[in-house]
Design brief:
heterodimer, A: mainly alpha, two-stranded antiparallel ribbon, 20 helices, B: mainly alpha, Helix Hairpins, 0% strand, elongated
Chain lengths: 514, 120
């Protein structure tokens, strides 16, 4: 029974990859039907993701062998608790973003919806693949469509910022290939499960090469995840991107975190012999540095978008501080923070986009501007978003931070973790308080009221933003059950043998599943 | 031995040239640098299957064969890097036409903001 459903694993990749060409070929002149079909496909993806999430609940790791080639030789997709959760998060975020884009962003350039679908395909593929080279390929699918989404609408700022973004990612891709090449040269495989076995049996002469490959890979993933000191590209790129694209890009930094979690627990985890836990000593200090840089950047930002970008960098720091512990409590806390940071970050970017559009003349600058049309509505959304993001009680940021502090208590670096997490939270809270008062309280009476060329729609974008914040609230209310689920994920990730056996000996998945 | 030395130093030289050019301040140099870096990595991947000549790329009962997988990988890498290079060339060209400058750095913030808002 368990294997008969396994072909559904390919659906999260196939649905968007069929949707995108359909949108281009059949509907390219008809924005209205593009919107309808894009939203329908996103909803279908959401349904499939919910189904797969339910499927993964039994704790069995399900491989899907494409073309029925046996595992280390063919291409393999793997669904476990972790990838199912990430797929669900992607589908939820994707659905929200496609609805938001209908409020006008998709009209400002061509092919928003096809690019959006291709991006979902790349993201889903990256979460499902069980092979390092396919991870590279899906990264590229995701990146090349993100270039399109980032440049959507054009303009000088976007072109210049886009060049930086593409250039840094091309260098990252090159490093990825170097890392993959080194790892293949010494192990002769790129299948993650097979690598997990081969890494512990590596010949003593090849250990240095394998370490080089593993750490090169860490650089690549840290670049995607905006881990200090590789975070400098993020504020420029995300602040220049259109609002809905930036919101969707929230999942892209998380892919870096996912890839680090997957690679350094499965392949270079505790069982990996000479290369065991190779990343742990780097991730925690880098996460603490990211916290500091993100918090200072948020405080120094002159625009709301820039502040949101640095708050994202800061939240990635919190995530990596917990992830860097590489134990069950740490990974569970990091995953909770991952969910929180994705939803809240996306809501903040959408809110910043709405505000920039309404404060004609001063945009999203943190300076006195003209009076808003519905100040209490937007101030209310900002208030909820700020509470969630900065980690004030009672929302998910606070709960997530509690989990992180709790996980860090037993660590040898607990003083650093507590000190830096708490002090940077204060700095970010200050930054958000200052931003809120600048945006909503200090009204410049002399500011000319520039009428927007087209009246901005209110209901749909506000509803989407509010729904994302509502998801944050739900995450806070349901923190107990959610955390139990996430701890189960952490346990499954920390036991790579389940994964290895499921992929390499798929004939007996039921017995090896537990 | 000499073939290994030649290939290794070739990869090293191309990477060095690529890294130097990427750190330059004009988009043209950066793009050329990226092309060099992608050539270097393609050659590197190709060499990962070990350097062999006159061997079949399949296991056919012969005692020796050359690993076909890196060749498949390098083909994928070439296609992707080619597409990416084309994209970034178009982007740099567009940026040059719109701003009249080939420089990589962003202008200081603040002055751009008002223009961008009016463009929206």
């Amino acid at each position: 029974m368990s294997t008969s459903l396994n072909f559904w694993l390919v659906a999260p990749i196939v649905i968007p990859s069929l949707a995108a060409p359909f949108l281009i070929l059949a509907l390219r002149h008809d924005l209205k039907s593009q919107r309808i079909f894009s939203a329908l496909f996103a909803a279908l993806l959401l349904a499939v993701a919910i189904g797969l999430y339910g499927l993964a609940q039994d704790g069995i790791v399900r491989p899907y062998l494409l073309g029925a080639w046996p595992a280390p030789f063919g291409i393999v997709l793997v669904l476990d608790r972790l990838s199912a959760t990430m797929l669900l998060l992607t589908a939820v975020l994707g659905f929200a973003v496609v609805l938001y884009s209908m409020a006008g962003w998709d009209r400002r350039g061509r092919h928003f919806h096809p690019l959006f679908q291709f991006q979902l395909m790349g993201v889903n593929g990256a979460f499902l693949t069980g092979d390092l080279f396919n991870l590279f390929v899906f990264f590229e699918v995701m990146l090349i469509s993100s270039y399109g989404l980032m440049l959507h609408g054009g303009g000088e700022k976007r072109l210049k910022g886009g060049f930086h973004y593409i250039a840094i990612n091309l260098v990252g891709s090159t490093l990825f290939l170097f890392a993959v090449g080194v790892i293949y040269a010494v192990t002769g495989t790129l299948n993650m499960a097979d690598l997990a076995q081969k890494a512990s049996q590596i010949a003593p002469g090849d250990v240095a090469l394998l370490r080089t490959g593993a750490l090169l890979l860490l650089i690549v993933f840290a670049l995607k995840a905006a881990l200090a000191p590789l975070h400098w590209w993020l504020p420029t790129a995300y602040a220049a991107a259109p609002g809905p694209s930036a919101a969707l890009f929230m999942i892209m930094t998380k892919i870096g975190a996912y890839a680090i979690l997957r690679t350094y627990t499965l392949i270079f985890g505790a069982d990996a012999g000479p290369v065991a836990n190779i990343a742990a000593q780097w991730i925690l200090p880098a996460g603490l540095a990211t916290l500091v840089v993100g918090a200072l950047g948020a405080l120094a930002s002159k625009t709301l978008l820039m502040m949101a970008c640095f708050a994202i960098v800061w939240s990635m720091g919190s995530l990596f501080v917990a992830l860097g512990l590489f134990n069950e409590a740490g990974i569970g806390a990091a995953l909770y923070y991952l969910l929180h940071s994705t939803l809240t970050g996306a809501a903040l970017f959408l809110l910043a986009d709405m505000l920039a559009r309404r404060r004609a003349g001063s945009g999203d600058q943190l300076a006195p501007g003209p009076r808003l049309e519905r100040p209490s509505l937007f101030a209310g959304l900002f208030f909820v978003g700020a509470i969630a993001m900065t980690g004030m009680p009672p929302l998910s940021g606070f709960i997530g931070k509690l989990f992180i502090l709790e996980a860090g208590r037993g660590s040898s670096a607990s003083v650093w973790i507590w000190g830096i997490v708490l002090s940077t939270s204060l700095v970010v809270t200050l930054a958000f308080a200052r931003a809120g008062s600048a945006l909503f309280w200090k009204i410049d009476a002399d500011a000319p009221l520039v009428e927007a060329k087209t009246p901005a729609p209110v209901i749909l974008p506000v509803a989407v933003c509010a729904a994302l914040l509502g998801a944050t609230v739900l995450l806070s209310v349901m923190a107990g059950p959610v955390k139990r689920e996430l701890d189960a994920i952490a346990r499954q990730t920390l036991d790579p043998q389940i994964y290895v056996r499921a992929v390499l000996a798929p004939s007996a998945p039921l017995t090896s599943g537990r | 031995m000499s073939m290994e030395f030649l290939v290794a130093s070739g990869i090293g030289l191309m990477s060095a040239v690529g890294i130097y050019l990427i750190l330059r301040r004009y988009t043209f140099s950066v793009i050329i640098g990226m092309v060099f870096l992608s050539y270097a990595v393609n050659l590197f991947l190709f060499a990962m299957g070990r350097l062999k000549i006159n061997e079949p790329p399949i296991i056919s009962g012969a005692s020796s064969y050359t690993d076909p997988l890196p060749q498949a990988l390098v083909l994928t890498a070439i296609v992707i890097s080619f597409a990416m290079t084309a994209l970034i060339v178009v982007l740099a060209l567009r940026g040059f036409l719109e701003t009249g400058s080939d420089r990589v750095e962003l202008e200081p913030a603040g002055s751009r903001k008002a223009e961008d808002m009016s463009a929206k």
